[in-house]
Amino acid sequence: MSSEDDFMSGMSSDEDDVLQESENEEGSADDFGFDEPEPDLGFSQKEDVQKKKKIFDVNFKVYQPKDIQAQQDDLIDEVNMILDIRKEDAAILLRHFRWNKERLIEDYMDRPKRVLEAAGLGTNVAGPPKLEVIPGFCCDICCEDEPGLKSFAMKCGHRFCVTCYNQYLAQKIKEEGEAARIQCPAEGCKRIIDAKSLDLLVTADLQQRYHELLTRTYVEDKEHLKWCPAPDCQNAIECGIKKKDLDRVVPTVVCDCKHRFCFGCILSDHQPAPCELVKRWLKKCADDSETANWISANTKECPKCNSTIEKNGGCNHMTCRKCKHEFCWMCMGLWSEHGTSWYNCNRFEEKSGSEARDAQAKSRVSLERYLHYYNRYANHEQSAKLDKDIYNKTERKMTQLQSASGMSWIEVQYLNSASQALQTCRQTLKWTYAFAFYLARNNLTEMFEDNQKDLEMAVEALSEMFEKNVQELAEPKLKVEIMDKTSYCNKRRVILLADTADNLANGVWSWGIDF
Amino acid sequence: MAFASKRLGKELAKIHGSLPPGITLVTAEGFQEWLLDIQVLDANPIYMNKTFRLKFKFSPSYPIEPPEVTFLNTADRPVPMHPHIYSNGIICLDLLGQQGWSPVQNVESICMSLQSMLTGNTKNERPEGDEQFVASNRRRPRDIDFYYHDNTV
Ligand SMILES: [Zn+2]
Ligand SMILES: [Zn+2]
Ligand SMILES: [Zn+2]
Ligand SMILES: [Zn+2]
Ligand SMILES: [Zn+2]
Ligand SMILES: [Zn+2]
């Protein structure tokens, strides 16, 4: 391990394998270089592609709940020592200052009284919080005054019975989801309840919920921290990309739970398209969904015999069951012509100027143009789903394959790599079509479309191999082919993303439609 | 209901004993809904010689949760004109919302707050967008996020 990694090793388990080692390296904030492991490479190329820094990847770190707790505890300890105040108070002050330790210390040194007042701590007297029985006490909430009634008051002196405090806190925590800023129940009192007092007053399950909510505010208050949006995932991601950077970089991050998402907008990975473009595109698709719906339908008619064909795999190469006609699902053209002229399938040929002069034709052209890109976008989305279905079936095939061919579990993992490559590449391809929709036509665009075409061809070729049955998959020759295609797909994806990100970072893309 | 009814029982006992001038209990049957009348005591021309009827609705977790308080509109009990009171009787007052509410408050203190809110008012008008709000609102008062931008009125 390098010295840098040693420094960070407290944040990650040392059991991480060698491939993951570089993941925890931190770079400067303006460096978009990366060290994230590519999740989906064929075995053959894994090593060398992995080590290279890529312009389209950002530095980030994954934190588990215990890491987030530890970070907060460290800050609290620091403030507790520097300012010589109770840990509970340090925690309240830090939350009040949205975890900006430097500002807190500076302000506190300047005028401690005002800071304490503003944070709801008022004048402070030392001593741990405790429940008391005060003779003659009457609770202002329930109006109970029976002797022996246990009550509690914070430093502000507003005293209420334990039952009322418990009910009040339960309402705040469970119903209103509050934690960091729960005030004293007394009217107009700004005193904020601290964790130690709270633990004294509520049941264990509420304590747990309260601390969960407190932890959430830590992440929500920090610009460089975000929760992983995957359901049931409790991890947070740290990334230095700021809002103002989002027109120059697409910050895709990968959680330990494998979820790939954009740190900028929390949506699923949408490289190479920048967040704002994605937002506009999704809105457009939602607005135009009625027009576009018919296109994304899952059935089409064979161009030769008109029998209905249902797309059942991710591949665009369709063979009509009835007449054996082979055609392209995307453009409905002859498949035999696609080996070399796939080009016609990814680029929308702009209509001639004479046609565009007519206003009606113009609006038709713009609709057709949109549908061209939408069709391809939706197709990859759909195909990715179908590829996944096929993979789920393939998992069963992998088991059969092991017994049929004598291959070990490790030896059939190439199918897993191929499936992951298909998913990731289709996700990228999908967004290249949204991206292209907004692009103005120039020679940069041509390069982009060439890259897009290369990736598309690689993906379709792999997708087709992937649909083979167990007998065919058992052939050693096909295994080698699939592994080669897998690494080729990943390579094409890297090239496309690197080129696009480079131009985005340099601000040289020109847009035909503003987003 | 045990929590709310215990407290409301005690409030009721106190109310039967005495209430501040201008506040009278109409009905308090059970611990779910009470009606009270209020009057503005000084010579504010907007509210002179008028009586207004308040409806209180309590949830089982009262007074931890605020009660739902609205003005009723009947033949002899109009909804008072005020820039924070909509013509359907819904009141925009921070102490009745989750943020401004304190469980130390009670029926009597709410009546007094509303009384003084009317006493100090000089504007014979409804809140902005009253018509639209009244026409479109289907939510209960407690679920509305009022923006308490002006507590001086
Ligand atoms: Zn009590
Ligand atoms: Zn207090
Ligand atoms: Zn996750
Ligand atoms: Zn984004
Ligand atoms: Zn056919
Ligand atoms: Zn085609």
Automatic annotation (TrEMBL), chain A:
The keyword Methyltransferase does not apply. Keywords: Metal-binding, Repeat, Transferase, Ubl conjugation pathway, Zinc, Zinc-finger. Residues 1-47 are annotated as: Disordered. Residues 1-39 have a biased composition (Acidic residues). InterPro entries: Ariadne, ARIH1-like_UBL, E3_UB_ligase_RBR, IBR_dom, TRIAD_supradom, Znf_C3HC4_RING-type, Znf_RING, Znf_RING/FYVE/PHD. Its EC number is 2.3.2.31. Gene3D superfamilies: 1.20.120.1750, Zinc/RING finger domain, C3HC4 (zinc finger). The keyword Metal-binding applies. Coiled coil: none annotated. Pfam families: Ariadne, IBR, IBR_1, UBA_ARI1, zf-C3HC4. One of its GO terms (molecular function) is ubiquitin protein ligase activity. This is RBR-type E3 ubiquitin transferase. It comes from Glarea lozoyensis (strain ATCC 20868 / MF5171).
From TrEMBL, chain B:
Residues 3-153 form the UBC core domain. Keywords: Ubl conjugation pathway. SMART domains: UBCc. This is Putative ubiquitin-conjugating enzyme E2 W. It comes from the Eukaryota. InterPro entries: Ub_conjugating_enzyme, UBC, UBQ-conjugating_enzyme/RWD. The keyword Mitochondrion does not apply. Pfam families: UQ_con. The keyword Metal-binding does not apply. It comes from Glarea lozoyensis (strain ATCC 74030 / MF5533).
